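TL;DR need structure tokens for one chain.
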Amino acid sequence: MKTINGNKESKAERSQRAGAITAALRAAYPEAGIQLHYRTPFELLVATILAAQCTDVRVNTVTPALFERYPSPRLMAEAEPEELERMIFSTGFYRNKARSILGMARALVEQGERVPDTMEELLKLPGVGRKTANVLLGHCFGQPGVVVDTHVRRISQLLRLVDSDDPDSIERELEVLLPSEDWMIFSHLLAEHGRQVCVARRPRCSECVVSGLCPSASVS
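>> reply
TL;DR here they are.
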């Protein structure tokens, strides 16, 4: 059991609280969803790699020209590293991202340019971790998963829904608390809440629709 405000919270009670949080955030952010622009699984894979430690808005300014220049895994695999780095420079960590994208594209070419539709296969691709794989599986292949980005990691801890600081453990803990149909939207809702209200440097608890469900809330 967890201790919440001095009271023991059972697993069932925590799951119920997670459901109430989901409902409140759904009402607050009815348009919550993926913000990356893409047309194909390959484009979403590239965009998600670029989104690491970068805003989706910034990625969306880079990808139109990038996908026009390299519309397929084969063409991306043949890109000159220096040119690719220039095109994605503004997303930050551009050398590492270019290396991951090139390695991923070359791996896809080796398997007929098909983007895998299983976690096991996706994790074999360079630059692809569970977060990226869950984005692909949920949005392109109808396989729900909890996407643990920086917002989900931080806010799920503030809400005391999870015990761990490890993203993989957080993913598993949240999957136990929530029904599978809510896994993906819960990730989007926490991300939106993190951008708008529960900001990292100074959470605006007085404006938070789930402050009454949050043991970390500080409302004057």
